[in-house]
Amino acid sequence: MAMKILVTVKEVAAVEDDFEIDGLAIDERYLEYDLNEWDDYAVESAVQIAEAADEDVEVVAATIGPERSEETIRMALAKGADRAVRVWDDAIADQQLLDVNAKVSVFEQVVAEEEPDLVLTGVQAADDSFGATGVALANRVDYQWAAVVNDLDYAAGDERATVRRELEGGVEEITEVDLPAVLSIQTGINEPRYASLRGIRQAQQKEITPFDLADLGLDAESVDGALELTAMYEPESESDATIFEGDAEETAAELAGVLRDKGVVGE
Amino acid sequence: MTEHDVLFVAEHRHGDLRDVSYEGITAGRRLADALGGDLHVAVVSGPVDRFAESLNTPEVDAIHTVDAGEEFDHDTYAAATGALHADLDPAALVFPNSVNGLDYAPAVADELGLPYATDAVGLAYDDGLTVTREMYGSKVETTVDVAADQFVVSIRGGEWAAASGAGDAEVSAFEFDEASVDDGSRVKGFEEVGGGDVDIGEAEFLVSIGRGIEEEENLDLIRELCEATGATLSSSRPIVDSGWLPKNRQVGQSGKQVTPKVYLAIGISGAVQHVAGMKGAETIIAVNTDPNAPIFDIADYGIVGDLFDVVPALIEEFN
Ligand SMILES: Cc1cc2nc3c(=O)[nH]c(=O)nc-3n(C[C@H](O)[C@H](O)[C@H](O)COP(=O)(O)OP(=O)(O)OC[C@H]3O[C@@H](n4cnc5c(N)ncnc54)[C@H](O)[C@@H]3O)c2cc1C
Ligand SMILES: Nc1ncnc2c1ncn2[C@@H]1O[C@H](COP(=O)(O)O)[C@@H](O)[C@H]1O
């Protein structure tokens, strides 16, 4: 039987330098959407396994996101994923903060539908950074797992993967993981490719299947998490930094003065 | 009564308790006080009796040791903390938001069917739990209410003071069914990475470059600055991820911890994992186009400006 890899991919927003908060969210005008950095690496890992395999390996991208996110999901298709599923629903849109529980309840059904051998997620989503979806999902669907993987030794068809988990302070843990498994992928594990023009053209033909909760046998309650976002604000600056004012020459001169004062550069 | 209690799980590696273990005691104590309950601390694997002695600070009410294996194994941790939770039935289960925390806490929360708020920088309890968290790379802070009597949270390192001193908590060995531990993943060993020709940890003056540099070719400009000033070159993670500099130049949680006399951060936003590696520098200087970049919160001096203007002018100063 051919192998299948499911990659969860999230469209995340980055905030511009100057921005305004509107209630519990940042005003749309100041947001720029892109594929989550960590997921870009996860897609690359999956596509590399598929490309190196003799047998057929299908790479399926899965997202929970509004219609707008299809543009971003197409980037994953342009980089080599074969098709995508996109889950969205009014009940999901109503949630200010989609908590880990809610996301895992959705992905649990996607896994039941797709029955992947391997699931790759990012370590964290760059926007709300729970850092929890992959490992919670593994527990829910009874897969093995490893979090913060920065090296993956796996060939399609193997019954286990050897991974390195990047711990703090430049220490790596080498671990064997039986399949089926969920791995949360760390940046730097590979060099994500740029989508080629050909890839972008091909991606237009690839399928993004939309699902709502009912399609997955879920209801509004299954995404109603216990976490509620109650405030968003700019953190009070704890800064007591001396900010040099002026043009580049003036500020550079001041900075040079500090460096000389501290005695780290010669006269 | 246990429904007001807090259970915190400590962390260790290669025979040493990690700092967050003592910080978690402080966070756990405050939460237990707000809840009106006791603080329980669990320590799993390794020399647990020695660990229990170190963790026995005045803030702690009870310590539970689980003698199983030497190093972290997520299946053992998940099974042991799950069993201990069932036994103690606490209101709050608190984990460190460390790399190993990321590897088992979500599984425990899911298995217990409890809501999970991660990476807390603040915890308050008043009729219900309110967690303070950051979003968008520390650009905004949020509060999140957790509508449940029992919950799981993970705490960010470095946000609470470390507990210290000797206490008189009761230490007891917790037995659980080790045969129930899954063995579908197995730790084979460890390796230290990031060695090599330079040790940025030794440098007195670091010029550190981040994603603001945009292109690999532009690194020459920073090299020129290093030459003109005698500084050693280091970087944030994306520069190393892109293969533009070797791993031994990376500052941060998963790179090196550095404590130079001067740390000049250029085009670095100041993400928590970066700051973890350089906040001990004597003087921190930041150059960044974004006046709201979190790096300015810890900087002593700053220039809000474009590095492609500022760096050439700075090189000029020393040539
Ligand atoms: C488990 C884990 C471990 C991690 N470990 C580390 C680690 O050890 N070290 C580390 O650094 N990161 C680490 N990270 C990554 C971290 O979260 C951030 O993604 C990273 O630090 C961001 O690097 P940066 O500041 O260079 O890039 P960005 O966050 O993209 O910031 C770039 C900055 O450059 C500024 N800029 C842009 N153009 C210019 C210009 N022309 N002139 C001046 N300024 C400009 C921008 O305003 C911005 O502030 C880790 C993440 C995880 C999840
Ligand atoms: N809405 C989403 N759609 C698709 N994938 C997601 C979503 N939220 C989280 N993920 C995946 O889970 C990883 C970890 O996210 P988080 O636990 O939210 O920090 C991300 O890198 C994604 O791979």
From TrEMBL, chain B:
Entry-linked Pfam families: ETF, ETF_alpha
Keyword tags: Flavoprotein, Transport
Domain Electron transfer flavoprotein alpha/beta-subunit N-terminal residue range list: 6-187
Keyword Coiled coil in record: no
GO molecular function: electron transfer activity; flavin adenine dinucleotide binding
GO biological process: fatty acid beta-oxidation using acyl-CoA dehydrogenase
Entry keyword annotation includes Transport: yes
The family this protein is said to belong to: Belongs to the ETF alpha-subunit/FixB family.
Name the UniProt record assigns to this protein: Electron transfer flavoprotein alpha subunit
Organism per entry: Halolamina salifodinae
